[in-house]
Design brief:
By secondary structure, the chain is mostly beta strands. Helix 3 crosses helix 8 (718-738).
Length: 770
């Protein structure tokens, strides 16, 4: 390409989209235009960025500069090869933070945006492409955050051998508007997302579930739609419904829902084509699917959480829906973790028309963590067909019941390390939250973990409602020394955590019911902060006990760091023999009796922070895992506890004993309640309620659900709705049993708000299968 030395104005539009380039626009002379940024997740507010285009040979340099409303300065440049149509390099700065990003760059007329000038002046229409979406770029450095709602980026880095690599950009709330202008467009700008749809293998003559495509108009004028239809090899195998009408307003969007109904066996393809008045029309979406005469019911098998070394069987039924014999050439397990799944079947070498056979899959995990694979079925009926397989291997806490995904598994460690900053989910009650740590020493008891006759010393952290007009210094999530210990055990950098609690703030006047909490085995007293803060915002005082020398790490006010003598769940090196667990529970029960005495003492302490504000006639005990067993035994042996909350408790065989105390039993991922839990339910002769979170795992009630978001199994509800459900079920139970309020509907029947929460109410039997 030759550069003419006449001055003109060109148009540059930046898109972060996963689309295929087209060369439908050709302009010999480029007219005055605008520049704007469009994001794959949302339309970024317009950027008024003065830009200039310079070139030498086949390369052009696009320089940009601007100031965001939050004061951050954007500057830098792209170097592009106009002849090859590729980005040579990208060197952008926000303030002093550098990151390399090469989004799609389209140089052409009529796309709208901010005025830019060209020197040399004429480059014609050129489409230059980098990676697809910013959020898909590989991370290769610790993430840093630009001030303000811009985006999270990684510092520049080098791959092995010194080759430069792109840093990742994870889009969050979008780019804030620049302070020096707005943008306008003279044409509609139409985009389709996604640009391809792939349908699962579908029996011939049956319709699939719908998949959706969104048509966005990012321009400033109305998008007029002439037609929406299908082209390509098999247009009759696809159907659509839409909300689009004949126009799409500026900044608006509409949805096109597509179903796949194959008419023949094998691969079927087509193109959704939308003809409109936007540049680049028609807009297209590639469609693919496969027709088969094989029906698999179910088409996926989820094994839940299974102990390492244990096994679990699930089956699927294969039916030949065709009119001729279905012949098999192979049925095998394939995929990432195929060695942890095995299959047997009754299919033989063929199945007659209209006949069925059974495929039984065994999941036997070798190590902790998520596992996935497929059963692949090769046949003459449009195969291969696949049955997706998934499950989670767990560390067995006890040889009879209770296990958990190891928090040092690669998936969890990666999810935690990917964040530089994270916030505790906001509490939902009406009150602000205060917190303080109190150091208690039991002068009547030697520490059973130590041989020197040293008295037992415990830290208790409180969360409670605080007046709204108080100044607030946000408290640390946990002490720096403890957080560093966790980081060392997990061998990953841990994010900075922002809490919602005001350090050492005063407790709101009035009497408050209290909840004493005992953590999971080798856990710590901040492991359930999302729940503690929420209860405090609803008016409860939470007292969480750190069980010294069992807890992974405890830092006392004078700087002493006491680490666990029993190992840690974070390193998966904990002692889990019966003798150790029995000893630990007996120590915990003594700890809880002592703490309850101390609550009474500080409640009577004139001018103290809790003086007369704890309602000691309304105290509940709650605990997770081994803390759940401790809770059950605690409410049985100490009548001062009015209610008990057992969060996915560890439940051995020898704890059966009737109790009149109100109990909430919360299970995680139960495919069936254990015999021990069935006996426990029958022993509960007072108010009782059970809820099982289908598809969840043992650590679900802990802060791991948001610290390692996406790596912890929460079922179909996902982490956010699961967090809300945990909070609301526990609060409803406490309101009824500590505040004597009428039963919340959540405690009466299943809720459509939480479809994965399977409930058993007071008068029902706890069935073997929830």
């Amino acid at each position: 390409m030759k550069w003419k030395m006449t001055r003109t104005v060109t148009v540059i539009s930046f898109f972060v989209l996963n689309t295929t380039p087209t060369h439908t626009q050709r302009c010999s002379t480029l007219k005055s235009g605008k520049l704007m940024l469009v994001g794959a997740i949302s339309l970024f507010p317009a950027l008024a960025i003065p830009a200039r285009l310079t070139a030498q040979g086949s390369q052009a340099t696009i320089s940009v500069k601007g100031t965001f409303q939050n004061g951050a300065v954007l500057s830098g440049s792209y170097v592009v090869d106009v002849t090859a149509g590729s980005v040579v390099s990208a060197n952008l700065f926000v303030g002093s933070l550098e990151f390399n990003v090469a989004p799609r760059i389209a140089v052409g007329g009529g796309l709208g945006g901010i005025d830019v000038s060209a020197s040399p002046p004429s480059v014609g229409d050129v489409f230059l492409f980098g990676p697809t979406a910013c959020s898909t770029l590989p991370a290769c450095a610790v993430a840093a955050t630009i001030p303000g709602p811009l985006c999270s980026v990684s510092a520049p880095c080098m791959e092995a051998g010194g080759v430069a690599a792109h840093s990742s950009v994870n889009l969050t709330t979008g780019i804030v508007p620049l302070s020096n202008g707005t943008a306008s467009s003279t044409n509609p700008v139409a985009t389709l997302s996604p640009s391809t749809l792939t349908f699962a293998t579908q029996p011939v003559g049956t319709s699939s579930a719908a998949q959706s495509v969104t048509l966005n108009n990012y321009g400033a004028t109305t998008l007029g739609i002439t037609s929406v239809g299908f082209t390509g090899a098999d247009p009759g195998d696809f159907a659509e419904t839409k909300t689009c009408g004949s126009t799409v307003a500026p900044g608006a969007s509409c949805t096109i829902s597509i179903t796949f109904k194959p008419t023949q066996l094998g691969s079927r393809t087509a193109m959704l084509s939308i003809t409109d008045n936007a540049p680049g029309s028609p807009q297209n979406v590639s469609l693919t699917g496969t027709g088969t005469v094989v029906e698999l019911n179910p088409a996926s098998l989820y094994f839940g959480v299974v102990g390492v070394g244990a096994g679990k069987n699930l089956s699927t039924t294969l039916t030949n829906m065709g009119n001729t014999t279905l012949n098999f050439s192979g049925i095998t397990t394939t995929g990432t973790d195929a060695d942890e799944f095995s299959q047997t079947n009754t299919c033989g070498s063929s199945v007659g028309a209209g006949k069925s056979c059974t495929i039984t899959v065994t999941f036997r995990p070798f190590e902790a963590g998520r596992d996935s694979a497929q059963v692949s079925i090769s046949d003459n009926g449009g195969g291969p067909q696949q049955v997706s397989l998934s499950g989670t291997g767990c560390v067995v806490i006890h040889n009879k019941n209770g296990c958990t995904t190891a928090l040092n598994s690669p998936a969890v460690r990666s999810a935690i390390a990917a964040q530089s900053m994270v916030a505790v989910p906001s509490p939902t009650g009406p009150s602000k939250v205060g917190t303080r740590v109190v150091d208690f020493v039991d002068s009547t008891r030697d520490d059973p973990f130590l041989a020197e006759g040293i008295k037992r010393e415990l830290l208790v952290r409180f969360w409670y409602p605080t007046p709204a007009d108080q100044d607030c210094k946000l408290a640390d999530y946990t002490s720096p020394a403890v957080w560093a210990r966790f980081s060392h055990l997990l061998a990953v950098p841990l994010p900075k955590v922002t809490t919602n609690s005001c350090l050492d703030a005063p407790l709101t006047d009035g009497l408050h019911p209290a909840v004493v909490f005992t953590h999971g085995y080798t856990g710590t007293f901040t492991d359930y902060t999302f729940l503690y803060e929420d209860l405090a915002s609803r008016g409860y005082v939470v007292a969480s006990v750190d069980h010294t020398y069992e807890a992974t790490a405890v830092e006392f006010p004078d700087g002493r760091l006491a680490t666990s003598v029993l190992g840690s769940y974070l390193a998966n090196n904990w002692r889990v023999d019966d003798q150790t667990l029995q000893f630990v529970v007996s120590v915990r029960l003594d700890d809880l009796r002592f703490v309850l005495n101390q609550l009474q003492r500080i409640n009577n302490e004139a001018s103290g922070p809790f003086d007369g504000k704890l309602d000691m006639s309304r105290v509940a005990l709650a605990g997770h895992s081994l803390g759940g067993l401790t809770t059950l035994l605690g409410v049985r042996t100490d009548s001062r506890f009015r209610a008990g909350i057992l969060l996915d408790p560890y439940m051995p065989e020898d704890v059966s004993n009737p109790t009149l105390t109100s109990v909430l039993l919360m299970g995680a991922g139960r495919t069936e309640w254990s015999e021990n839990e069935l006996r426990l339910w029958n022993d509960l002769q007072g108010p009782r309620f059970a809820v099982n979170f289908r598809g969840a795992e043992h650590v679900m009630p802990s802060d791991a659900v948001w610290l390692a978001k996406g790596a912890i199994q929460t079922g179909d509800m996902g982490p956010d709705k699961t967090i809300a459900a945990i909070r609301n079920y526990i609060a409803a139970f406490l309101d009824a049993n500590l505040r004597d309020q009428p039963l919340n509907p959540l405690l009466k029947e299943p809720s459509s708000d939480y479809p994965d929460a399977q409930v058993t109410t007071q008068r029902n039997l706890l069935r073997g299968r929830p």
